[in-house]
Each structure stands twice: as C-alpha cells, then as structure tokens.
Specification:
The chain contains 1 helix and 7 strands. With 70 residues, it is an alpha+beta fold. The strands form 3 sheets. A 3-stranded antiparallel β-sheet has the order 5-4-7, with no helix packed on it. It has a two-stranded antiparallel ribbon with strand order 1-6. The longest helix has 12 residues.
Length: 70
C-alpha cells in the first residue's frame, strides 16, 4: 500500500489543469461581449461589461484560447 501511495502522489503533482480568468481590453478600455473560445472546440465564454471572463472549463498546459471581438 505504501508503494502505491508513492506512485500516486507524483502523478497528482503533474496535473496542470488550470481555471482561467481574465480581462479583455483595448486601448479604449474593457471590451463587452468579446468571445473567448478554446481552439478547436465550441467551448467558450463571453466577457462582461468590465471585460472580465471566467473560462467554463479547466485548461491544460498547451490549450490555446482564441479571443474575438467585432
């Protein structure tokens, strides 16, 4: 059992999922309604009136977010 615990803990330490929050700004200030999408998927978020967003999915180290605003 102790040997199993030694192998499980390093695996948990390598988990690099992250919750991403941020603010979308331009030179004129925060952008309301910018879309933030995980590249290659339809998972995304929309920035609020302060330009802030919280991505609805935990992201991994090499995930890429694409931000669009019209």
């Amino acid at each position: 059992m102790m040997l199993f615990c030694l192998f499980v803990n390093p695996m948990n330490a390598q988990n690099t999922d992250r919750t991403v929050t941020g603010v979308v700004n331009s030179l004129d200030g925060p952008l309301l309604g910018a879309t933030i999408i995980l590249k290659g998927t339809t998972i995304g978020a929309i920035s609020n009136e302060a330009g802030a967003f919280t991505f609805p999915k935990k992201l991994q180290e090499n995930d890429v977010l694409v931000v669009n605003y019209l």
